């Protein structure tokens, strides 16, 4: 039986093992201090949140998420990361994590629950296509500017 609950301080070692595997899956390693920062933010549970899926007490899956306000709709729950141990996949753990998050979103008054994943991901896409609705959206990333956008009230810099 899968048990899902919020992350707690004693989860650190198992969480980091799964999180490093998640980052390796996307070939996106992080420096060691990044795990310390994220773990602190997860335990504070003010900006970002984390849950763990366990089977017989062993952590086999994780999810990181946060809530944000919407402009045209109500609050939304955004799933930032979802990962299930590769030896446990195809046993319903990912689906149960999503179900838990959907219930939590509803309990918190969120009207939307969504996430992004790489279009070419051969592991995630088939799973997500099976359990959720694909919404045709294209995501862009724009570089953050370090200088002020408005120059002394004279308008945007060009």
Fold and architecture overview:
The protein contains four helices and five strands. By secondary structure, it is of the alpha+beta class. It has a single domain, classed as Gcn5-related N-acetyltransferase (GNAT) (Aminopeptidase), CATH 3.40.630.30. Strands 1-2-3-4-5 form a five-stranded mixed beta sheet, with helices on both faces. Strand 2 (49-55) and strand 3 (58-68) form a beta hairpin. The longest helix has 15 residues, at 93-107. It is globular. It starts with a strand and ends in a 27-residue tail after the last helix. The mean pLDDT is 89.
Keywords:
alpha+beta; single chain; 5-stranded mixed β-sheet; Aminopeptidase; 158 residues; globular
Quick structural overview:
Keywords: Acyltransferase, Transferase. The chain has helices at 12-25, 32-44, 93-107, 124-131; strands at 2-6, 49-55, 58-68, 76-84, 112-115.
